[in-house]
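pasting for ref
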Amino acid sequence: MAVPIIALDVDGVINSFPTSLRKDEKPVWDDLTAFSCPVSLHGGTSFTITHSPTVINRLLEMHTSGQAEIRWLTTWGSEANLELSKGVGFPGDFEVIAERPQFAAYTPLQTTGVKGDDGGWWKLTAFKQLAADNPDRKIIWIDDDLAYDRHAVEFVKNHEGHVLGICPETDYGLTPEHLSRIAQFVAD
């Protein structure tokens, strides 16, 4: 079987938002680190990127060892290969599955305003094409907005065995349980 593909989002996945947690909640990872990342798509405005080196290292190990191939499926588009990759420790050369169309909403909720409604989420369209183009490869779709589009959820369910959907909570990002599920899916 061909090497599985990991379709990776950034915000809410590798970039968690621990400042959004309630005072009685704790981040999942104890090694969170943050840096300021300029984003040209937003006029050079800098965003704080809070990530766990453990998460980055585990994903990168899968990629560099040939267990899986990481590709970007994020609103960051090709910009994810610039300062963001440099800051978290990725090589900066991951393929970009699709760039966000100029006027497309960032999330399914912005597309329709109604949770679970089909509003033509650009990431789902791109992911469906990726799956169609790679019928012999397992694909892991990791996106914190995945559960908000019922058509995306249905697509993942209808392609069980070929596709694994991982939808982290935005504030936490990927967890040890998510990484275990990914590793198991890749290994099977």
